[in-house]
Amino acid sequence: MTLRAQRTEEGLLLSVSDTGPGIPEASQARLFQRFEQAEGPQRRVGSGLGLAICRELVEMMGGSIELESRLAHGSTFRVRLPLAVPASSTPVAWAPGRPCHLLLVEDDTIVATVIRGLLEREGHTVVHVVNGLAALAELAHADVDAVLLDLDLPGVDGFQVARLIRQRERAGQHLPIVAVTARSGSGDEAKARAAGMDGFLRKPVSGERLADALACAAAAPATRTPA
């Protein structure tokens, strides 16, 4: 098996090649679907989820994954990611020179893994919780520099979590909150800001968009009153 990585004009190209038996053309189209596997003499175990999860992760990062395979000649999987060359190795622009402690509130573990990886790559520490109550409990005993908050959480949704955070703040305090959502409605951003959030991101996110949203949230004036 051979693993390669190279920089292209579009970003980063990763490839994994083997010299195995190859995959029949009829099986290639469904190979990236959940619970699908190609039959073969080497297939013994597995759930058929690995490639489906890879595809979902790659698409969340704005990239693509493809397969090239010939029977008796092996297979090559290619992942193309639109990752720009970083200008420097310093943390993201909104906190130059200082790693930040961030709280990520996200019930989808795949999305959380992607976002956490993007932030940790910039030197930040990320605490991940899966619901609003856990977020409030974390904020009760730990100091964080900002919160990335999914809107559609089980139980207490993101709007209510933001309102509760604002209600708990003392005079002069203002914790930056960035909404991160898969919603596409035109009124969702206004609703999020009315609830006390400072930034708004639609999924899938990128490292650059996260940095910009956090920078804007950190610079937001603490004058908004949650509805």
Task: Please describe the topology of this protein.
Blueprint (H helix, E strand, L loop, with lengths): L1 E6 L4 E6 L7 H4 L21 H11 L3 E7 L3 E8 L19 E5 L3 H13 L3 E5 L2 H10 L4 E5 L7 H11 L8 E5 L6 H7 L4 E4 L4 H13 L8
Parallel strand pairs: 5-6, 5-7, 7-8, 8-9
Antiparallel strand pairs: 1-2, 2-4, 3-4
What's the short version?
By secondary structure, the chain is an alpha/beta fold. 30% of the residues lie in helices and 22% in strands. Strand 8, helix 6 (188-194) and strand 9 (199-202) form a beta-alpha-beta unit.
What order do the strands of the largest sheet run in, or round the barrel if closed? Answer: 6-5-7-8-9
CATH class descriptor name of the largest domain: Alpha Beta
When the domains are counted, the total is 2
Strand percentage, roughly? 15-25%
Fraction of helical residues: 25-40%
Helix-strand pattern: EEHHEEEHEHEHEHEH
Stretches where pLDDT is under 50 for at least 5 consecutive residues are 41-47, 86-97, 222-227
Instruction: Let me know the CATH homologous superfamily of the largest domain.
Output: Response regulator
Q: In the CATH scheme, what's the topology name of the largest domain?
A: Rossmann fold
Mean pLDDT: 81
The description of the largest β-sheet is: 5 strands, parallel
